[in-house]
Amino acid sequence: MDEIYKTIEEAEGKKKLKAGDIQKKFAVGDVTRDDVKAAIRDLVDSERLTYAYLGGSYLVLPPKA
User: Fold this and answer.
1) What are phi and psi of 64, to 5 degrees?
2) Most buried residue among 23, 38, 53, 62 by CB atoms closer than 10 A?
3) Residue 2 and residue 8 in contact, taking contact as beta carbons nearer than 8 Å
4) Which domains does the chain have, with CATH numbers?
5) Helix locations, 1-65, DSSP H
């Protein structure tokens, strides 16, 4: 889960990543796409990540208060 967060954090302001991009990158070996989906869901539920809708659905860091 932390690896997914770091990937989004590093891409912030440079590239917009969709959930499918993250699934493709992390679904290797014993890790399935469903495992990655569950990890993304946990990150969104814990408010570490959020979705932005900019002509498509992208994972981004939540806005800072």
Assistant:
1) -80, 140
2) 23
3) no
4) 2-60 (1.10.10)
5) 2-11, 19-26, 33-45
Instruction: Evaluate if pTM is beyond 0.85.
Output: yes
Tokens 């990937």 belong to: 7
CA pair distance 46, 27, nearest whole angstrom: 21
- Give the pair of three-digit tokens for residue 34: 């469903």
How confident is the prediction along the chain (65 residues), in pLDDT tens digits per residue?
Answer: 899 999 999 999 999 999 999 999 999 999 999 999 999 999 999 999 999 998 999 999 998 86
Query: Which tokens hold the place of 44?
Result: 């969104």
